[in-house]
Amino acid sequence: MPADNLITLHQNEELVSDDIREIISYRPHWIIRKGNVVFLAILFLLIALTYIIQYPDMVNASARIVALNPPKNVNAKSEGKLLKLFAKDEEEVKKDQHLGFIESTASYNEVMMLYKWTEDIIDSITGYKYDIVEKKPLPALQNLGELQANYQGFQNELQLTRQTLANGYYRKKLNALKKDIQYMSLLKDNIYRQQKLQQQDQELQQNEYKAYEKLAEEKVIAPIELNQYKSKLLAKDQSIEQVESQLTNNDVSTHAKQKEILETYKQVIDQQQRFYSSLLELKSEIEKWVHNYVLQAPEDGKLLYVTTLKENQLINQGQNLFYVEPEEINYYAELTAGQRGFGKIKTGQQVRIKVESYPDAEFGYLNGTVNYISGMPNRRDSFLIKVELPHGLQTNYHKNIFFRNNLSAQAEIITVNRRLIERFFNQLKKVWER
Fold this sequence. Notes:
By secondary structure, the protein is α+β, with helices and mostly antiparallel strands.
């Protein structure tokens, strides 16, 4: 560097103060140096987010969850102690399976023994085959409580039926009547043989009379002698009529015996019908007892306890004890939408259903699809919409909602799934058009 320049630079440095020199030597922060670039990057990021983020148009509606085959509840029909539990929580059960029984004046085991006996008898005598009534003894039961009187009445009817069907009075009477008919048939055959003999004798007597009649015409014999032969012929005719009368009396007696047999059969059938009616009445009373004191599964499915249950626990009448969840349940939602925005709703649109009993912040919401839209409003000027639930009652948080009849909910029908930037420009467009 030339000497003149060095002298000039040195003179200039002497003219600059320390404060100015400090300001000139200070390096700005990177935000100040690169602020415009950061601002532009954030701006582009926000614009990209408005393109990515979707803010759909929605129509709100009230909803309720419905099932075609909902879980069935099992309630206590009477008050008392829960003496026995036969099934555990979440156990698979069959229809009419006994889940437990409540305390009563009757013994559960004895009632079930009597019920099994009545079912066996009814199955066997459906075709009027009453042999089992004589062979299968009625169990001797002493602890039937309120069913004891019905049991005693049926026991008496059973005894009469057994006497009727077995080798008792009616059976012996029928055998005797049948024997009488057999004897009358033999007697009738004997009378027929006598009738044939007498008819032959009558023919001989008639031929003899005709011969003497010719002799009387020729005046070979006297008329009075002809009358004697005529009297003998009339006697033969009378004998034949008596035989025919015996045949008629035999038929009348046989018919009377057959009628008596029919009446006896009718008495037997009447007794069978009285027995059958008494049997059905006893079975009906047992079923009433079972309905009141035995807890039964309404259908096949999984048993779910409503609350903690244990034996000897006091149960109130009408208390809900169990649910039986069927193997296959079809759930759907019924929406009630008003006039506002109804024209935008179409089949196939997605629906978010938020069940009121299960807060969506914790449990999430159910996803559904519109599959039916009513064309006519109801009395409240709203429309019915049915929504299919492809995932059942599993929410978007993969949590299952327990079904109860008519679960109320709020639904959001997504009519147009637009991006945030589209909504922004639509708002600008509306402002511009004003």
